[in-house]
Amino acid sequence: MAKLEVGILGATGMVGQRFLQLLEHHPWFHATWLAASDRSAGRRYADAVRWKLATDLPESAADIIVEDATPERWGKRPPRIIFAALDSKVAAQIEPQYVSAGCVLISNSSALRMHENIPLLIPEINADHLQVITGSPNAGFAVTNPNCSATGLAMALAPLHRDFGVEKVFVTTMQAVSGAGYPGVASLDILGNVVPFISNEEEKLETECQKMLGTVADRKITFADFTVSAHCNRVAVEDGHTESVSLKLRRPATAEQIIKSWRSFHGEPQKLDLPSAPKHPVIYLDQPDRPQPRRRGVVWPLPCLADGQ
Questions:
Q1: What is the pLDDT of residues 147-198, one digit of tens each?
Q2: Overall domain count for the chain
């Protein structure tokens, strides 16, 4: 089929670069519209961006003229599908304008995540939450992805909540510096150190998982009724967040039953055989010293995206 044209909002930042990298060889999508701040607007993308990823800047994007991210300053109208990679403070102002302009906005920012009519989506877990989107089929709408640590936690909890019920969760995170975006944490603050505070991170884990694992009825989400207690730490690791989780289940389960629940878990992306969907969304490692960020034991399907604070 012909590829769908898509845009990237916040295209010069690290998350915008990652979106562009992941879309470069996608069989369905082709990035033809890039937008950033007024500092970059009007310039060739190759001239405007400080490319930070290990792979080369995609040739297909090099000559695209960067648009101003502010809708009233557009020179060229964006395509209907937009991948947004803005800081949450900017996103809160700009993203609703894209929705009002009829765009389908897929946002990495935290700005709209908890809105009642906006799905907070991990397709393997809660594809049915798309029901909460209101408006006509041709109207604009937004879909958000979760906080980076909430993503990993929710994926591990979802099979267990389905099979046994989750009652309480205690989680301590050890989050890599890449999660803070670029340039991230100052070297003198993080080298040989642990920073036991990440602004708003604990609140995100404690509420986002409840929304994602909630149920939908009459186009409204009822949050899951388990409690989450989170302690978040920034550690001197380049890429790869680690979480230590203890939980109480509503129904007793053996270790073998829990492992089977994880290994048998799959969702709509696997049923539909979507091109970027991992074959196994949850992977259980039986080595006693795994997982480790530098020795993962598996090839992860996607690189980590920095959270949109």
A1: 999 999 999 999 999 999 999 999 999 999 989 988 889 999 999 999 999 9
A2: 2
CATH of the domain at 200: 3.30.360.10
CATH value at residue 102: 3.40.50.720
pLDDT in tens, 66-99: 999 999 999 999 999 999 999 999 999 999 999 9
Task: Note if the pTM is more than 0.85.
Answer: yes
Residue in 129, 161, 209, 241 annotated catalytic: 241
Is 304 designated active site? no
Note if 241 is an active site residue: yes
Residues 81 and 156 in one domain: no
CA dist., res. 190 & res. 229, Å (int): 24
Q: Which amino acid, residue 114?
A: M
Q: How far apart are CA 240 and CA 124, in angstroms?
A: 21
Annotated catalytic residue, options 103, 148, 209, 304:
148
Answer whether 302's CB lies under 8 Å from 22's CB: yes
Q: Which domain holds residue 104?
A: 4-112
Binning the chain into helix, strand and coil, the percentages to the nearest 5 are 30, 20, 50
